[in-house]
Design a protein that fits this description.
mainly alpha; 115 residues
Length: 115
């Protein structure tokens, strides 16, 4: 019964990987100057990636996944936060690293599990 909680649907795994890698890419891409709509898409994608990782963590029973909630709040597209360009560059890089590391830590136990 305990293992059922930690089973992750392959579709959820693939969706998580795609969303997180897309978000990380657009976050790193934000280091350059882009039109306003780029940052709107960035907010939606980064927030979605953080939410998916939190959800995935809940499915897998990973309690530390809740630490990604601040990333979701930071990139919330409904009530955006405003910082200087330099601050955003730092936050973008840090967020990209955090979400990719979270993905790696969620995927590693599944990949290492004996079949």
């Amino acid at each position: 019964m305990g293992n059922e909680k930690k089973k992750v649907d392959p579709v959820l795994r693939v969706a998580t990987i795609v969303v997180v890698l897309a978000a990380a890419g657009i976050l790193i891409g934000a280091l350059y100057k882009h039109p306003y709509y780029y940052y709107t898409v960035l907010r939606w994608l980064a927030c979605s990636a953080a939410v998916v990782l939190v959800w995935r963590g809940a499915v897998q029973g990973i309690k530390w996944a809740w630490t990604l909630v601040p990333v979701a709040i930071l990139f919330n597209p409904v009530a955006p936060m405003h910082f200087s360009r330099d601050t955003w560059r730092t936050l973008d890089i840090m967020s990209a690293v955090v979400i990719v590391l979270a993905l790696i830590f969620m995927e590693t136990p599944i990949l290492l599990r004996k079949r």
